[in-house]
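Field log, afternoon session.

UNIT: design team B
ACTIVITY: writing a sequence onto a fixed backbone
BACKBONE:
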């Protein structure tokens, strides 16, 4: 049974996701909703952990010099992707800032599609 209240949207581009504390690239956005994000990564991500993250929309989607909105999310589940080289990890946003949610809406409107 589906637990999330909003439907995830797949994006036409894989946007990079960074850990804001370490600066480390965690992976790329596979899909996103206003409640959470699915990250595709080469390295497994620890479960039941809270991360401070940032999505890099790239220069084509964000004006130069404007900061990327950060967010906090908890890793809830993970499994191997169809390509066994990758792992997909589901994250739930924790108390997302309205500015971040506006950025997610804009990403979905600009790049989103449904399978």
């Amino acid at each position: 049974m589906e637990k999330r209240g909003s439907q995830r949207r797949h994006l036409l581009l894989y946007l990079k996701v960074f850990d804001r504390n370490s600066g480390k690239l965690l992976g790329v956005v596979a899909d996103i909703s206003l409640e959470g994000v699915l990250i595709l990564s080469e390295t497994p991500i620890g479960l039941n952990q809270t991360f401070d993250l940032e999505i890099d929309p790239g220069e084509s989607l964000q004006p130069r010099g404007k900061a990327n909105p950060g967010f906090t999310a908890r890793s809830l589940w993970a499994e191997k992707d169809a390509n066994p080289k990758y792992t997909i990890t589901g994250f739930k946003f924790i108390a997302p800032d309205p500015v971040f949610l506006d950025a997610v809406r804009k990403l979905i409107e600009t790049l989103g599609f449904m399978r």
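LOG NOTE: The chain has one domain: 9-113.
NEXT ACTIVITY: expression trials, pending approval
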